[in-house]
Amino acid sequence: MKWKGQDEKEFDIVYRNGGLIDAAAVEYLCDKVNWPRRPAHKVDAALKNSFLVASVTLEESGAPPEKRRLIGTARCTSDGAFNATIWDVIVDLSLIHI
Predict the structure, then answer these.
(1) Which pLDDT belongs to residue 9?
(2) What is the pLDDT of residue 15?
(3) pLDDT of the residue at 97
(4) Coil, helix or strand for 81?
(5) What is the model's pTM?
(6) 17 near 52, Cβ under 8 Å?
(7) Closest Cα partner for 88 from 41, 18, 16, 36?
(8) What pLDDT sits at residue 66?
(9) Residues 33 and 90 sit within 8 Å (Cβ to Cβ)
(10) 13 vs 25: CA distance, rounded Å
(11) DSSP 26-61
(12) Which residues are registered as beta bridge partners of 38?
């Protein structure tokens, strides 16, 4: 999906499931939605120990991965048989109109 910023620069909106997400980026997103801060090492452990982590990033075409901007995330824990729980669904409110 494409999105144009205020400066008319074009960005891709990219969904991923699996892979690593930087705990600092998640905490920055939490700050944007007024969630309380959590210790970075605990956020990192929660992300690494989740059954699935999904992310949505805003990416400028041709930019390196470190320039990706996390705009949404969620994680899931599971017993691997019957039950799963979705946790920490966060969306950057400044982009909610897209």
Answers:
(1) 75
(2) 94
(3) 65
(4) coil
(5) 0.82
(6) yes
(7) 36
(8) 80
(9) yes
(10) 16
(11) HHHHHHHTTPPP--HHHHHHHHHTSSEEEEEEEEET
(12) none
Integer Cα distance of 33 and 92 in angstroms: 7
- How far apart CA 68 and CA 58 sit, in angstroms, is 6
The position carrying tokens 């620069």 is 9
Interacting residues of 72 by C-beta distance below 8 A, sequence separation 6+: 29, 55, 56, 90, 91, 92
CA angle 64, 27, 69 (to 5 degrees): 25
- pLDDT averages per 10-residue partition of the chain, 98 residues: 69 88 94 93 96 93 83 95 96 78
Nearest-Å Rg of the Cα atoms of the chain is 14
Position 97, amino acid: H
Classify the phi-psi angles of 62: left when phi > 0, otherwise alpha if psi is within -120 to 50, otherwise beta: left
The amino acid sitting at 3 is W
Residue whose structure tokens are 């799963």: 84
